[in-house]
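W.,

You were right to be curious about this one. When I first looked at the sequence I had no strong expectations either way, so I just let the prediction run and decided to look at it fresh. Below is the sequence, 346 residues in total, followed by the output.
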Amino acid sequence: MSFAEISFEDSLKKSVVNTGKCVGCGACVVVCPFKCLEYVDGKPVLMKECKVCGICARVCPQYEWSWSEAENFVFGRKRRAEEDFGVYRRLVLARAKNTKTLRVGQDGGVVTALLLFALKKGIIDSAAVSGKNKEKPFYPIPRMSTLPEEILECAGTKYFYSPNMFAVAEGAKRKKACMAFIGTPCQIRAIRKMQIAGLKKCTASIKFLVGLLCSECFNYEGLMEKHIHGKLGINLGDIIKMNIKGKILVTTKSGVTTVPLADVRRYARKSCRFCDDFSAELADISVGGLGLDGWTFVIVRTEAGEKLLEEAGKAGVLQTKPVEKDDSALNLLVKLSRKKRVPVSE
């Protein structure tokens, strides 16, 4: 496939990085065939002369984005006006049946349960996920997991950005043939752009994409170090789990501390303001809590996603129940999706 001959400086640096739109997904760094770019402080930095191949511009989820092109590629059609949260085949509420998975997972533990099931059945041989930094509690790092215990170690949501694209690159380097990718809407977009561009070296091994519903990510130093530790006096090492249910819930060994979102909004990543995708509309399966207690809201979007969910259900891995039309979680999904559809202007 041929690419428009445009340099990193004239495309991404000018229109994405310098304007504050760069989400830090790392896709451009991963695909650069000449290794001109490096990932520095969450952004791509040109370390040597750009060869002007234009590949980085083709994969950036923030550069010359086309919803219609992406939707036609994934679903064979564009999203209809009434499809507030994108194209989908089925909606269900689900949760893991295994108590250990439920304990370490977020909400209903669905993502962890699906990965463990797919790994056991040989559907995948690895998963690109967010791991844990041992020195900084809840600070996520990209990790390519290949073992059940690694999947369990990485369970649970971290509300800070993890460039999981580098886990995909690690999988390609180690010649993994069947990967699952777990990521935010912007990361799912980057993977789809890589697929549209025909970059099979990076994407051929990816069997399904699980997208995480996401309004925004936070700056770790601001939320964790300045506010939760500095202002509230919570030892970050004592935190067992974090969740957002209209407010941030910080669970420690001694109880739950509530943090109003209004108090920490200033620590949200600026680039998230430009995002217009709340529900990871291009994933095979999209998942999120949406105010639910002990359950995960699941949006099945593609045939691959539906097959995976059905097989996991038949195997007794997941418990599911239908989403009612007047369900509060569904109403919240519609509300947040519509809100995200109108991102800030430049």
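Here's what jumped out at me. The mean pLDDT is 94. And, maybe more interesting for your project: The first strand starts at residue 37 and ends at 40.

Coffee later to discuss?

I.
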